[in-house]
Amino acid sequence: MTIYQRRFFMFFFIFLFIIIAPIMVFFAKGYRFDIKTKIFVYSGSITIKSVPKDIEVFLNDKQQNEKRLNYINNAYTINGVRPGKYSLRLEKDNHTSWEKDIEVHSGISTEFWNILLFPNKEVQEILSHTNKNIEQFFLSPRDEQEIIFFSEEDNKKAVYLLDAKNNNADKIFETDEFYFLDPSEEENVEWSSDNKHIFIPFQDEQGIKIYIIAKIKGEEIENPVNLNEIFNNEKDDSEVAVSSKLAKKQIKDGNEEKITTFKKVRWMFDKTDELVILTNNHELYYLDFNKPEERILIDDQVSGFDFAGNRIYYTQLPNNLVWEIKNDNTETKRQITNQSFVPSENGFIELTVYDEYRLTIKDEFSGNLLIFNEEKEENEILTKIIENNIKGVQFSNDGKKLLYWSDSEIWFLILRDWDVQPVRKKGDNELITRFSTPIKNVQWLDNYENILFSSGNKIKSAEIDVRNHVNIVDIVKSSQDFDNRDFFYNKKNQMLFFKIPEKINDKELSTLKSIILLKSSGIFGFGG
Predict the structure, then answer these.
(1) Which DSSP state fits 378?
(2) Which domains does the chain have, with CATH numbers?
(3) What is the pLDDT of residues 261-312, one digit of tens each?
(4) 66 CB burial (10 A radius; 0-12, 13-18, 19+)
(5) How many other CB atoms are found less than 10 A from the CB of residue 201?
(6) Model pTM?
(7) How far apart are CA 333 and CA 352, in angstroms?
(8) Which residues of 134-145 are buried (b: 16+ CB within 10 A; e: fewer)?
């Protein structure tokens, strides 16, 4: 090689370095050359966290190579994305898909932290748990796969305790005097805080609510008693404790006897033998059922109550102001709200409390909803009245979001500023979805960024990320419409239990099924 050739190559590579080095520096700093504008632009990125985590990612219908997907903090990041509008789609074989039109900005990561892809019918493992006809069922706090269900047999009402792991159902109570409450009453089988006692709601032939209380040990209940009889001092130890004696005495010689009936009963939040009882004449009582004669009248003119922490919250007529007492100590009574809310019809409301700063009051008949939201640190109180025939409400576990719904719409309200994408400000109120068929069974999933609900004969899930559009998918389809309380989601094990019609031995029955919605991946959370 001659000296001129060496000099040529030397100057060529110097020139090439001068050209390429700035480009490499720009590239390393996140700049990309835009062919359309013919200038360097500062790129952005896309961050995706999904369940399950092994997914296929498509950007503008082009599948992204795994080498481009940096997996950090249990999330995928696509770096070096030129600013602009894109179509983002996530897929996994035999799962529902997810897609949005998104916009990437310079120097900013566009983030999606709560994407769920559910197994579809091709891979769903549908478990059957009993061949008995299910009237209603309830999740048990004692075990993730323990279920209590109601069934009618030979004109008797039977209560069963089901171990869904081995499909063993044990009958724990039976009566031919009482009837099951309608699911619209939204009365639960409820356990004491130590899971040693249980009460089961019924009604008699005149529609009076009857509560059977018993100690529960293993798969049996011991010494069931009628709470109504205990309260009204009608218990006779020489007779069978559980009877309809009280109900039969309601009418005597054409005159109505003055007996106390119940509107709502709850176990005291941290007690084992004690209850809080709201009567139909608006009296709120604290009762140790072992010492009923020592019951305490908490207050009168009460229209509804709820618990939060170690406090009892209740509303009082005529204006439904909210009061708080600590435990059962009436001397600690203090007023929480000042906003008047007058109910219609029978004067009862549904009070739902997250804490003393966040609560809702709903009229049983009109569905009008009052939302009370106080931020003490900001010295700010916000109230909002919604007149839209609201059917139910649920707070998120952190108290920052409120889910509420009517027969045809589902909404959420932001109660505290939310700094994670999508960023939301306190007071933001967003419509999640609207259907022409009735919406029922609305409930949060455990990330509180996705929900479950039923519409018609389908169980569906929707996200609450309203950027571009809301992804809604079908999870379960039945041959008939789902009614209120026809399915429950267990956050502890990600199982969905649901009633579904099935023909067994030439009989049409409502049987209990379950599927696993999302599988856990262990230490790093969900995904599989």
Answers:
(1) G
(2) 43-116 (2.60.40)
(3) 999 999 998 888 999 999 999 999 999 988 999 999 999 999 999 999 999 9
(4) exposed
(5) 20
(6) 0.87
(7) 18
(8) bbbbbbbeeeeb
